[in-house]
């Protein structure tokens, strides 16, 4: 009897292990994909993935709200049930991302409500297919509480897990760690007055969807807009803007 109970216990433990392994391998974060035009990222796994990000807190001085956005490619590796059941039971509905931030000295004063949080979204992924999901890895309310001196930077890490639902049951993806350099002044640069500055041959226009991350950005000061909430043009455009009411 003892031997039988021990064997039964082994089967139960093995079943639990298999269930957990199947859960994370059925829904998989494949990579962080740079978005294309319209801020839509491809759902196809490619060689152009991002393995490291940059966020510039210094962009705030030019009227840009710092934040960091990821476009995660997810794979639903479950098998379709249409042939076996006549209906599809294995579509996974993505509902949220669980994010934990390790921010170094820039976030040393932040409590866990700003370093551990959920970002909510919705994407349905049929079995055997991929989808791209936009996730706020460092939201504006978190970035706005960070502090770095000009020219300083720290290395941060965002740990991300995606939670979906299949047939009323939650299904969790694998967890990934995505490194993000947080800096003050490493991306956004003021090249001077828009009407008198010597413009470089190439004007850096920044990230397509978020001017505070990943790509260099040139800004210039528009003296004609000195009384405006934001007198900077980002990306920089030569000349001044006529703000006279006609």
Distance between the termini: 95 Å
Task: Give the SSE string.
Answer: HEEEHEHEEHEEEEE
Question: In terms of structural class, how would the helical and strand content be classed?
Answer: alpha+beta
Give the name of the CATH architecture of the domain at 23-182. Answer: Sandwich
Query: Which band does the percent of strand residues land in?
Result: 35-45%
Strand order of the largest sheet: 2-8-7-4-5
- The CATH class assignment of the domain at 23-182 is Mainly Beta
Helix content bin: 10-25%
Shape: elongated
Rg value: 23 Å
Mean pLDDT: 86
- Count of DSSP strands: 11
The CATH topology assignment of the domain at 23-182 is Immunoglobulin-like
So how many helices? 4
Spans where pLDDT lies below 50 across 5 or more residues: 1-22
Largest sheet: 5 strands, mixed
